[in-house]
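Notebook p. 47: complex prediction with cytidine-5'-diphosphate.
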Amino acid sequence: MKTMKYDKELLKDGKRIDGRGIDDLRDMEAKAGILKRADGSGYFRMGKTEAIAAVFGPRELHPQHKQKPQRGILQCRYNLTPFSVDDRKRPGPSRRGKEIGKVSEGALSSSIFLEEFPTATIDLYMEVISADAGTRCVALNAGSIALADAGVPMKGLISACAAGKIDDTPVLDLKGEEDMGGQVDLPIAMNADTGEITLLQMDGMTDIDEMDEMLELAMKGCEKVAEKQKEALMETF
Ligand code: CDP
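Predicted complex, structure tokens below:
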């Protein structure tokens, strides 16, 4: 459950600490094809949270006993780099990182035609290079660009962003201080073309009406993220 670590007022006269309104996303930047050695790659930034992603494959999965005869698999690694946070993070795998890798596999694989690649793996590496809340969303946004850049056949791009609650008010896309001082963080991922939600997590306490409001904010946010991802991919053609 979320605990208040900040005493500061996060919302005043409808404005947030960085001047945003309640339904404003942070400033976004997206790029495709940033890494020469990967089959596909992407970059995404929301405010001060940045991630790069690299895709390798589809390629034969080893060891063979892990292969699925009817379909390929997607393997995701999410990593918060040691230099991405204020206090240096201990390098190497963590429980949190493994969990985010797993939920990312679920969020992205439902959009990939994995049945076209029996016995294969698609490996996606998502590296958070700067963290100021929303890292799983930003990593997924970079990851989805990388999959599309690699030419992996997909039903649509997956776009992610979080809504939350600060000072008893639902808002879109929390930044670091809002995440620490806020009451709820609710990241989602969706296919913005179909409206299909592929990830929904929540930290904190809320009720069903507020949950609806946050979901609506987050879904609108994902639509804007999708536009940015598409612009980046168009630039590589
Ligand atoms: O990043 P996201 O919101 O997806 O996940 P979180 O676990 O709710 O983390 C919120 C924020 O806490 C991150 O974005 C980082 O800014 C920070 N954090 C950190 O400083 N050190 C960690 N080991 C984990 C998170």
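Notes: The first strand starts at residue 11 and ends at 12. The radius of gyration is 18 Å.
Next step: compare against the earlier run before touching the bench.
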